[in-house]
Specification:
It is built from nine helices and 14 strands. The protein is an alpha/beta fold. It has a single domain, classed as Alpha-Beta Barrel (TIM Barrel). The chain has an eight-stranded parallel β-sheet with strand order 5-2-1-12-11-10-9-6, sandwiched between helices. A two-stranded antiparallel sheet has the order 3-4.
Length: 273
Protein backbone atom coordinates (compact mmCIF):
# COMPACT_ATOMS: atom_id res chain seq x y z
CA UNK A 1 0.00 0.00 0.00
CA UNK A 2 1.41 3.41 -0.95
CA UNK A 3 2.18 5.93 1.76
CA UNK A 4 -0.56 8.12 3.22
CA UNK A 5 -0.84 11.71 2.03
CA UNK A 6 -2.24 13.99 4.73
CA UNK A 7 -3.76 17.31 3.67
CA UNK A 8 -4.36 20.11 6.17
CA UNK A 9 -7.20 22.50 5.31
CA UNK A 10 -6.02 25.15 7.71
CA UNK A 11 -8.67 27.86 7.71
CA UNK A 12 -11.48 27.57 5.14
CA UNK A 13 -13.85 30.44 4.45
CA UNK A 14 -16.58 29.88 7.01
CA UNK A 15 -15.10 29.13 10.44
CA UNK A 16 -14.29 31.98 12.82
CA UNK A 17 -12.20 32.84 15.87
CA UNK A 18 -15.45 33.02 17.83
CA UNK A 19 -15.81 29.28 17.21
CA UNK A 20 -12.13 28.52 17.88
CA UNK A 21 -9.59 31.26 18.73
CA UNK A 22 -6.84 29.37 16.86
CA UNK A 23 -8.51 29.83 13.44
CA UNK A 24 -6.02 31.85 11.36
CA UNK A 25 -6.87 35.12 9.59
CA UNK A 26 -3.63 37.09 9.17
CA UNK A 27 -0.68 36.05 7.03
CA UNK A 28 1.36 35.38 10.17
CA UNK A 29 -1.40 33.19 11.62
CA UNK A 30 -1.82 31.28 8.37
CA UNK A 31 1.92 30.59 8.28
CA UNK A 32 1.80 29.46 11.92
CA UNK A 33 -0.98 26.99 11.20
CA UNK A 34 0.59 25.72 7.98
CA UNK A 35 3.88 25.09 9.77
CA UNK A 36 2.15 23.32 12.65
CA UNK A 37 0.44 21.00 10.17
CA UNK A 38 3.57 20.28 8.12
CA UNK A 39 5.66 19.70 11.25
CA UNK A 40 3.05 17.17 12.41
CA UNK A 41 3.10 15.23 9.12
CA UNK A 42 0.98 17.01 6.50
CA UNK A 43 2.37 16.87 2.95
CA UNK A 44 -0.25 19.27 1.55
CA UNK A 45 -1.77 22.54 2.73
CA UNK A 46 -5.19 23.28 1.26
CA UNK A 47 -5.39 27.06 1.31
CA UNK A 48 -8.15 29.61 1.61
CA UNK A 49 -7.11 33.14 2.55
CA UNK A 50 -8.69 35.86 4.66
CA UNK A 51 -8.38 39.55 5.23
CA UNK A 52 -6.97 40.44 8.63
CA UNK A 53 -10.51 40.82 9.99
CA UNK A 54 -11.38 37.28 8.90
CA UNK A 55 -13.32 38.17 5.74
CA UNK A 56 -12.76 35.47 3.09
CA UNK A 57 -11.18 36.67 -0.14
CA UNK A 58 -9.90 35.20 -3.38
CA UNK A 59 -7.65 38.18 -4.04
CA UNK A 60 -4.64 37.07 -6.08
CA UNK A 61 -2.24 39.34 -4.21
CA UNK A 62 -3.37 37.98 -0.84
CA UNK A 63 -2.91 34.41 -2.07
CA UNK A 64 0.58 35.22 -3.34
CA UNK A 65 1.51 36.86 -0.03
CA UNK A 66 0.35 33.82 1.95
CA UNK A 67 1.86 31.24 -0.42
CA UNK A 68 5.24 33.00 -0.46
CA UNK A 69 5.22 33.27 3.33
CA UNK A 70 4.34 29.58 3.81
CA UNK A 71 7.05 28.46 1.38
CA UNK A 72 9.67 30.45 3.29
CA UNK A 73 9.19 28.21 6.32
CA UNK A 74 7.92 25.05 4.57
CA UNK A 75 9.79 25.10 1.22
CA UNK A 76 8.78 21.60 0.07
CA UNK A 77 5.08 21.60 0.97
CA UNK A 78 2.44 21.20 -1.74
CA UNK A 79 -0.03 24.08 -1.59
CA UNK A 80 -3.50 23.61 -3.09
CA UNK A 81 -5.30 26.96 -3.30
CA UNK A 82 -9.08 26.86 -3.25
CA UNK A 83 -11.09 27.99 -6.24
CA UNK A 84 -14.24 27.40 -4.21
CA UNK A 85 -13.77 30.61 -2.26
CA UNK A 86 -16.89 31.44 -0.28
CA UNK A 87 -20.55 30.93 -1.20
CA UNK A 88 -21.76 33.83 -3.34
CA UNK A 89 -18.45 34.71 -5.01
CA UNK A 90 -18.37 34.98 -8.80
CA UNK A 91 -16.43 32.57 -10.99
CA UNK A 92 -14.03 35.38 -11.92
CA UNK A 93 -13.30 36.07 -8.23
CA UNK A 94 -12.80 32.40 -7.47
CA UNK A 95 -10.38 31.81 -10.35
CA UNK A 96 -7.84 34.44 -9.24
CA UNK A 97 -5.31 32.06 -7.63
CA UNK A 98 -5.03 30.12 -10.90
CA UNK A 99 -3.22 33.16 -12.33
CA UNK A 100 -0.30 32.34 -10.01
CA UNK A 101 2.43 29.72 -10.70
CA UNK A 102 0.84 26.91 -8.66
CA UNK A 103 1.04 23.12 -8.95
CA UNK A 104 -2.55 22.28 -8.01
CA UNK A 105 -5.91 23.88 -7.24
CA UNK A 106 -9.32 22.61 -6.26
CA UNK A 107 -12.11 22.28 -8.81
CA UNK A 108 -15.61 21.84 -7.40
CA UNK A 109 -17.65 19.32 -9.34
CA UNK A 110 -21.24 20.53 -9.13
CA UNK A 111 -23.86 22.68 -7.45
CA UNK A 112 -25.09 21.50 -4.06
CA UNK A 113 -26.85 22.54 -0.90
CA UNK A 114 -24.34 23.84 1.63
CA UNK A 115 -26.14 24.08 4.94
CA UNK A 116 -28.73 26.80 4.46
CA UNK A 117 -27.02 28.12 1.32
CA UNK A 118 -26.46 26.89 -2.23
CA UNK A 119 -22.90 26.41 -3.49
CA UNK A 120 -23.14 27.14 -7.21
CA UNK A 121 -20.94 25.30 -9.70
CA UNK A 122 -22.74 25.25 -13.04
CA UNK A 123 -21.51 23.29 -16.04
CA UNK A 124 -20.31 26.47 -17.81
CA UNK A 125 -18.40 27.46 -14.66
CA UNK A 126 -16.76 24.06 -14.43
CA UNK A 127 -15.80 24.17 -18.11
CA UNK A 128 -14.23 27.61 -17.57
CA UNK A 129 -12.31 26.38 -14.52
CA UNK A 130 -11.16 23.29 -16.41
CA UNK A 131 -10.02 25.35 -19.41
CA UNK A 132 -7.97 27.64 -17.15
CA UNK A 133 -6.27 24.70 -15.44
CA UNK A 134 -5.49 23.00 -18.76
CA UNK A 135 -3.99 26.24 -20.10
CA UNK A 136 -1.92 26.90 -16.96
CA UNK A 137 -0.83 23.27 -16.41
CA UNK A 138 -2.50 23.10 -12.99
CA UNK A 139 -3.53 19.69 -11.68
CA UNK A 140 -7.02 19.84 -10.18
CA UNK A 141 -8.10 18.20 -6.99
CA UNK A 142 -11.69 17.36 -7.88
CA UNK A 143 -13.98 18.19 -4.95
CA UNK A 144 -17.01 15.90 -4.89
CA UNK A 145 -19.71 16.69 -2.32
CA UNK A 146 -22.39 14.56 -3.98
CA UNK A 147 -22.35 11.20 -5.72
CA UNK A 148 -23.48 12.75 -9.01
CA UNK A 149 -20.48 15.08 -8.94
CA UNK A 150 -18.15 12.17 -9.62
CA UNK A 151 -19.92 11.01 -12.78
CA UNK A 152 -20.19 14.61 -13.98
CA UNK A 153 -16.49 15.38 -13.71
CA UNK A 154 -15.34 12.03 -15.12
CA UNK A 155 -17.57 12.62 -18.16
CA UNK A 156 -16.12 16.14 -18.56
CA UNK A 157 -12.58 14.75 -18.38
CA UNK A 158 -13.43 12.19 -21.07
CA UNK A 159 -14.57 15.06 -23.31
CA UNK A 160 -11.37 17.02 -22.66
CA UNK A 161 -13.21 19.83 -20.86
CA UNK A 162 -11.14 19.44 -17.68
CA UNK A 163 -7.72 17.85 -17.06
CA UNK A 164 -7.82 14.07 -17.29
CA UNK A 165 -5.80 11.10 -16.07
CA UNK A 166 -4.34 10.69 -13.61
CA UNK A 167 -7.15 12.34 -11.64
CA UNK A 168 -7.10 13.25 -7.94
CA UNK A 169 -10.45 13.27 -6.13
CA UNK A 170 -11.39 14.65 -2.74
CA UNK A 171 -14.62 13.16 -1.42
CA UNK A 172 -16.05 15.73 1.00
CA UNK A 173 -18.73 13.91 2.96
CA UNK A 174 -20.99 15.07 5.76
CA UNK A 175 -21.74 18.63 4.63
CA UNK A 176 -25.31 19.38 5.78
CA UNK A 177 -27.51 18.89 2.71
CA UNK A 178 -24.98 16.74 0.82
CA UNK A 179 -23.89 13.09 0.81
CA UNK A 180 -23.61 11.67 4.35
CA UNK A 181 -20.19 10.65 5.69
CA UNK A 182 -20.66 6.89 5.79
CA UNK A 183 -18.20 4.14 4.95
CA UNK A 184 -20.72 2.73 2.47
CA UNK A 185 -20.88 6.00 0.57
CA UNK A 186 -17.10 6.31 0.55
CA UNK A 187 -16.73 2.77 -0.81
CA UNK A 188 -19.31 3.48 -3.54
CA UNK A 189 -17.39 6.58 -4.65
CA UNK A 190 -13.98 4.90 -4.58
CA UNK A 191 -15.26 1.98 -6.60
CA UNK A 192 -16.46 4.38 -9.32
CA UNK A 193 -13.25 6.34 -9.97
CA UNK A 194 -11.20 5.75 -13.12
CA UNK A 195 -8.29 3.31 -12.92
CA UNK A 196 -5.04 4.99 -11.90
CA UNK A 197 -6.76 7.77 -9.96
CA UNK A 198 -5.87 8.83 -6.43
CA UNK A 199 -8.36 9.92 -3.78
CA UNK A 200 -8.68 11.67 -0.45
CA UNK A 201 -11.48 11.49 2.11
CA UNK A 202 -12.70 14.53 4.03
CA UNK A 203 -15.18 14.02 6.85
CA UNK A 204 -16.94 17.15 8.03
CA UNK A 205 -17.32 17.95 11.72
CA UNK A 206 -17.66 14.91 13.98
CA UNK A 207 -17.05 12.66 10.96
CA UNK A 208 -13.46 13.86 10.44
CA UNK A 209 -11.73 10.98 12.16
CA UNK A 210 -14.41 8.31 11.74
CA UNK A 211 -14.01 8.73 7.97
CA UNK A 212 -10.23 9.09 8.17
CA UNK A 213 -9.73 5.65 9.71
CA UNK A 214 -11.50 3.64 6.95
CA UNK A 215 -9.88 5.81 4.27
CA UNK A 216 -6.45 4.94 5.66
CA UNK A 217 -7.32 1.24 5.77
CA UNK A 218 -8.69 1.36 2.20
CA UNK A 219 -5.48 2.83 0.78
CA UNK A 220 -6.79 6.36 0.25
CA UNK A 221 -5.55 9.64 1.62
CA UNK A 222 -6.95 11.95 4.30
CA UNK A 223 -7.76 15.63 4.78
CA UNK A 224 -8.22 17.23 8.19
CA UNK A 225 -8.07 20.79 9.48
CA UNK A 226 -9.99 23.73 10.88
CA UNK A 227 -11.90 24.22 7.63
CA UNK A 228 -13.69 20.93 8.25
CA UNK A 229 -13.62 20.45 12.02
CA UNK A 230 -12.57 22.52 15.04
CA UNK A 231 -12.40 19.75 17.66
CA UNK A 232 -9.73 17.22 18.59
CA UNK A 233 -12.34 15.15 20.42
CA UNK A 234 -15.94 15.61 21.52
CA UNK A 235 -16.26 18.93 23.34
CA UNK A 236 -12.53 19.73 23.20
CA UNK A 237 -11.35 22.42 20.77
CA UNK A 238 -8.16 21.65 18.85
CA UNK A 239 -5.29 23.96 19.73
CA UNK A 240 -3.86 23.90 16.20
CA UNK A 241 -4.12 22.24 12.80
CA UNK A 242 -0.99 20.36 13.78
CA UNK A 243 -2.88 18.68 16.60
CA UNK A 244 -5.48 17.40 14.12
CA UNK A 245 -2.78 16.13 11.74
CA UNK A 246 -0.93 14.42 14.61
CA UNK A 247 -4.09 12.47 15.47
CA UNK A 248 -4.27 11.14 11.88
CA UNK A 249 -0.59 10.18 12.07
CA UNK A 250 -1.32 8.19 15.24
CA UNK A 251 -4.27 6.41 13.60
CA UNK A 252 -2.13 5.60 10.56
CA UNK A 253 0.61 4.19 12.77
CA UNK A 254 -1.87 1.94 14.56
CA UNK A 255 -3.11 0.71 11.16
CA UNK A 256 0.42 0.12 9.85
CA UNK A 257 0.38 2.84 7.20
CA UNK A 258 3.42 5.04 6.65
CA UNK A 259 2.95 8.79 6.12
CA UNK A 260 4.22 10.43 2.92
CA UNK A 261 6.52 13.41 2.80
CA UNK A 262 5.74 16.23 0.38
CA UNK A 263 8.32 14.82 -2.06
CA UNK A 264 6.71 11.38 -1.87
CA UNK A 265 3.24 12.94 -2.27
CA UNK A 266 4.40 14.66 -5.48
CA UNK A 267 5.47 11.29 -6.85
CA UNK A 268 2.18 9.66 -5.89
CA UNK A 269 0.16 12.50 -7.45
CA UNK A 270 2.33 12.73 -10.57
CA UNK A 271 3.56 16.26 -9.90
CA UNK A 272 6.88 17.81 -10.79
CA UNK A 273 8.31 20.43 -8.46
Amino acid sequence: MEKLIITAAICGAEVTKEQNPAVPYTVEEIVREAKSAVDAGAAIVHLHVRRDDGTPTQDKARFKECIDAILKVCPDVIIIPSTGGAVGMTAEERLQPTELPIEMATLDCGTCNFGDEVFENTMPMMRAFGKRMIENNIKPEYECFEMGHLDTIVTMARKGQVPGAPMQFNFVLGVPGCTPATVGNLVWLVNAIPAGSTWTATGIGRHEFTLAAPAIAMGGHVRVGFEDNLYIEKGVLAKSNGELVAKVVRIAKELGREVATSAEAREILGLKK
